[in-house]
Amino acid sequence: WDAADMPPAVAWGAADRFSFEPDLIVQLREDITLPDFGSDQWLNVPMEDTGLTEDRYIQMAEIKPLRGTAVVHHANAIARRGRGDGEIGPGEGSPHLVEYAVGKAGEHYPEGSGKLLAAGSQLVMNLHLHSIGEETKVNTALGLKLYPSGYTPKRVQFSRVFPFPSKMEQDEIDIPPGENNARTDSYHYVEQPMLITAFQPHLHNRGKRQCLEAIYPRSPSAPWPESQGGPYRVRPELISCADFQFNWHLQYTYEDDVQPLIPTGTILHLISWHDNSAANRGNPDPTAWVGFGQRSIDEMALMWLEYSYLTDEEYEAALRTRRAQPGANAGNQQ
């Protein structure tokens, strides 16, 4: 073939990389140069100013590498608001906006909910970079679809990795050489009612599958039948399961009418499986024992949850609405 016969190359703009049309795109202030060889790097890199002079709420968010896609293990956009503790809690907008990992598309938040981007926030990109044998220039962009100026959603959306804040369970990841179904269990106590809107497994190259189970507290006011544990027993319910492939970090979004309603006192039980056998084509070394670590060749057993906090009154109202739906499943109705 003759290159002269080829049509002109398409000039892709920054906005063409996103799964929606962003209102705002910001990127790193300058490229990062990653050497050809060396240890993995974890960096917190300032991003361009947003130019926003008032609080705005985010309807959609997505991170895309502009340069050096092959070396970006993950990227997290963080909005610093003049406090360094990074706490999140009821009624606040989370400092964490959105996460990127290989194969992930954008996050679309349910109608009437959104993440707060406070006026004057400094955006920082938390990056994990892995050298691939050649010097690489790296830059990433954050695209945001914003609600109109002055709009306040009914619910503030949060994005958080679990288990958090304790990583004790991660230290228990124990994957023997050649094991094709190693299991890790993690637990998180829910201190306030929450509405879960999306679930995303986070494992590394040996990740195989992940499930999320809710273990509901005793409910004497709405006793369970004997088939579901009896009147004063806790009751487990499987609320999500997904196979995992490292090149496709997929977020699973619930339809509005089946978003899990989680009462106070629930234990979220995360179950993860890893495949360290030679049959796993993504396994860097099936002869190695593997435990928890930040590097790509180590393992994790985490999940990202998208959710909103509810007051007790909001939880009870949502529960009544859910029960009134035609064909409603008893599900997690306490």
UniProtKB/TrEMBL annotation:
One of its GO terms (molecular function) is oxidoreductase activity, acting on paired donors, with incorporation or reduction of molecular oxygen, reduced ascorbate as one donor, and incorporation of one atom of oxygen. Keywords: Disulfide bond. InterPro entries: Cu2_ascorb_mOase-like_C, PHM/PNGase_F_dom_sf. This is Copper type II ascorbate-dependent monooxygenase C-terminal domain-containing protein. The keyword Disulfide bond applies. The keyword Disulfide bond applies.
